[in-house]
Amino acid sequence: MPTSAGDGRIHWYPARGTARLVLALGHGAGGGVEARDLQALAAALPAHGVTVALVEQPWRVAGRKVAPAPKTLDAAWRELWPALAAAGPPVVAGGRSAGARVACRTAGELGAAGVLALSFPLHPPGKPEKSRADELTATGLPTLTVQGARDPFGRPEEFPPGHEPVAVPYGDHGFAVPKKADIGQDDALGLLTEAVAAWLAGLF
């Protein structure tokens, strides 16, 4: 899909049966749509009547290793949005890390039905004074945040009142859990997908 920043790509995972909604998910600045949380949602949600669209930003499609400035990410997301909205049902905007910030900043203007923020980077690691909470709290839309309990970009207890995340025990910024944790990786991702599925079911 062409954008002013180059070609982006949308990976579709169609709902089984009639789709109730589309969940559009952008990736982070350090990786792409292969992230474990995005792949887990793409595998699990179609059975719940949700079409998942994993949106690959142009910089990743072009093979670059460094993400561009936020305004460039926002612009590409806006330009790809019509293809997402054309799928028919309401669209929930979302993403992980930098992709969550893009969704939060643009969801209202694009007419999204809600926002899903995975591993929202509340602040740079070790710098809680540089908070980005205003991006999350200003969506004006139903918003769900899912955060790893060990995320150095913001632990669940650091989030502002009214925006407390669903916590994934032992999870880091990529929702990876240590091998010695009393919860396995598959179980951690299961908690994530179940929380998202339940939240989406409550929207419609």
Explain the overall architecture.
The chain has six helices and nine strands. The protein is of the alpha/beta class. It has one domain: Alpha/Beta hydrolase fold, catalytic domain (Rossmann fold, 3-Layer(aba) Sandwich). The strands form two sheets. It has a seven-stranded mixed sheet, with helices on both faces. A hairpin with a 2-residue loop joins strand 1 and strand 2 (about 5).
Which class do the helix and strand fractions yield?
A: alpha/beta
CATH 4th-level superfamily:
Alpha/Beta hydrolase fold, catalytic domain
**What count of helical segments does DSSP give?**
6
Shape: globular
As a percent range, the share of strand residues is: 15-25%
Q: What is the CATH top level name?
A: Alpha Beta
Instruction: Encode the helix/strand succession as letters.
Output: EEEEHEHHEHEHEEH
* Mean pLDDT over the residues: 96
Low-confidence stretches: none
Question: What percent of the residues sit in helical stretches (DSSP H or I)?
Answer: 25-40%
Radius of gyration using CA atoms only: 16 Å
- The CATH architecture category equals 3-Layer(aba) Sandwich
Number of domains: 1
Distance between the termini: 29 Å
Quick summary:
The protein has 204 residues and is α/β, with parallel strands linked by helices.
Set out the fold topology.
Elements (H helix, E strand, L loop, with lengths): L1 E2 L2 E2 L1 E5 L7 E6 L9 H9 L5 E7 L1 H4 L8 H16 L5 E6 L1 H13 L4 E4 L14 H5 L5 E6 L17 E3 L16 H19 L1
Parallel strand pairs: 4-5, 4-6, 6-7, 7-8, 8-9
Antiparallel strand pairs: 1-2, 3-5
Helix pairs in contact: 1-6, 3-4
